[in-house]
Design goal:
10% of the residues lie in helices and 38% in strands. The chain has helices spanning 106-116, 157-164, 234-242; strands spanning 4-11, 20-21, 24-28, 31-32, 38-41, 47-48, 60-64, 67-72, 76-81, 89-94, 97-103, 121-125, 129-130, 143-144, 152-156, 180-183, 195-200, 204-213, 244-246, 253-263, 271-273, 277-283, 290-291.
Length: 294
């Protein structure tokens, strides 16, 4: 088998906003550095995502020294300091995984309130949330920031090619908002379903927790920020046709694309880069989902 390598690296500093693509990122206990570090909430603390506000996809993000730079249609640019102005913690609960955040202040709140047309606040992660207890392992981080459920999402170019064979329209990788995108001539579509432990580069180890169950968000064209009506959601249709399965952890029927990863504790502080080789250290004979269709 030829080498499997990292083709693309992305972090999404603010949950549901645009990505930062880079040649390398440091790995923290919560995933790649600054990934889902911030979240937008309603005044009552309920988090906001593209599920209800797909226009968040159009908020561009960038890191510049000690600042996070934002640029959104109609409201323009703003810079947020990477130094915390407040240590006062507010509980933030995302999918029954509570953690805490610190408020980024009125300037950031007004910026997003103007963009979304309703009052919201911006919080930065302080106390990490924890992945589900049944998914924790010794020697592997259990922390997660404001991502839905797990620290890192890995996706395969070869698997995307196979998914496109079931789709009426082209599906691009951006729709899946992966952190690590892999490729390689010898890589087979959905081969990653069988992996359990991998490393990237010389020192970065990851535990593959589970296949990633997908909500309707991949139907959002990330360059347009619009969620189509259910009848026009061709990504969900393609996933249902070719990637329907039962999640062994909860017995629920879902559609799957990509893999949820947690970094090993020894990986914290290491750096991974585009072009790094991915090595498989543990694999099983069965997928980490129970396929309904092949």
């Amino acid at each position: 088998m030829s080498e499997i390598y990292v083709e693309e690296l992305n972090v999404y500093p603010i949950k549901s906003c645009g990505p930062i693509r880079s040649e390398s990122f440091e790995v923290s206990a919560k995933g790649l550095a600054y990934d889902r570090e911030w979240v937008i909430t309603r005044p009552n603390g309920t988090f906001i995502s593209q599920r209800t506000n797909p226009e968040l996809a159009l908020v561009e993000t960038a890191l510049d020294g000690d600042k996070l730079l934002l640029n959104a249609p109609l409201v323009g640019e703003i810079a947020i300091s990477l130094e915390r102005d407040s240590e006062e913690e507010t509980e933030i609960d995302i999918f029954k995984k509570p953690g805490t955040g610190t408020d980024e202040g009125d300037v950031a709140a007004n910026y997003f309130s103007d963009y979304l047309g309703k009052p919201v606040r911006l919080f930065r992660n302080k106390q990490p949330r924890l992945i589900k207890e049944e998914c924790r392992q010794d020697g592997v981080s259990s922390d997660v920031g404001f991502a839905d459920g797990f620290p890192v999402l890995l996706a395969s170019i070869k698997s995307l090619g196979m998914l496109n064979k079931s789709s009426l329209q082209p599906i691009d990788m951006a729709r899946f908002r992966a952190n690590i995108v892999i490729n390689g001539d010898g890589l087979e579509a959905y081969e990653e379903d069988y992996w359990r432990q991998v490393s990237i580069g010389k020192h970065a180890g990851f535990h593959i927790v589970r296949a990633c169950a997908r909500c309707p968000m991949p139907n959002i064209d990330q360059s347009a920020g619009i969620l189509p009506k259910p009848a026009d959601r061709f990504v969900s249709a393609a996933l249902k046709e070719s990637r329907s399965g039962i999640d062994p952890l909860n017995g629920k029927e879902e559609v799957f694309f990509g893999q949820n990863l947690s970094p090993s504790l020894s990986t914290i502080g290491q750096t991974i880069s585009v072009g790094d080789k991915l090595s498989i250290h543990d694999a099983e004979d069965s997928r980490n989902l129970l396929p309904i269709s092949e």
